[in-house]
Amino acid sequence: MTLSIVNNIQETSAQEIAFPSFEKKVIYDAQGNPIEGFSAITNTETEKVNAIMSSRYTIFNHEEAYEIIEKAATNLCPEAKGDVNFYSNDGFMKVSYLLPESYNVEVGEGDSLRTRLVGYNSVDGSKSLTFHVDFERLVCANGMVGFSREFSFSRRHSKFIHEDTNNFDIAAQLEYAWKKVQENAAMLKNNAVDFDKGMSAIK
To answer: Residue 34 CB: number of other CB atoms within 10 A?
Structure first.
């Protein structure tokens, strides 16, 4: 397993991150005949085979996925900070952007939600291309965190993956989700009942 972590992504260009790149290659049998129906997903730099997949499998390289989520996060908040991680011989990638405290959504006194945009991609069939927005909430003093997922986008690595991704505006969905949670939080705060006053009313 390999692991690469880059902190503070917004200060790092995509060219400076060592993104692995993969391509499909023909597989041959012992007699030198091509094996139909399957392809070798191969690292273009090391020439190592990462996975054997169906020939219908479409590669969506990690850098493509990173650029989508980086654009979405920094479009909403230029100061957004994130990590990018590679696992399983670089076949699996996770990108996570946590927006700064100024983008927290307050749901009560001393109670707020932190906004996080997360993306996953793989070239070995272990994970679909996935993006989602989470709102993290500290729900108790021992550090337990709850999540509210406002939208999720997921596509299999089929021949339509690039077309589907181009037609789905991740940045707009992130902005909409953040504003929607703000509205819901304001409604919750406005309708909140003080416990002591509530008990007095019951009595």
So the answer is: 9
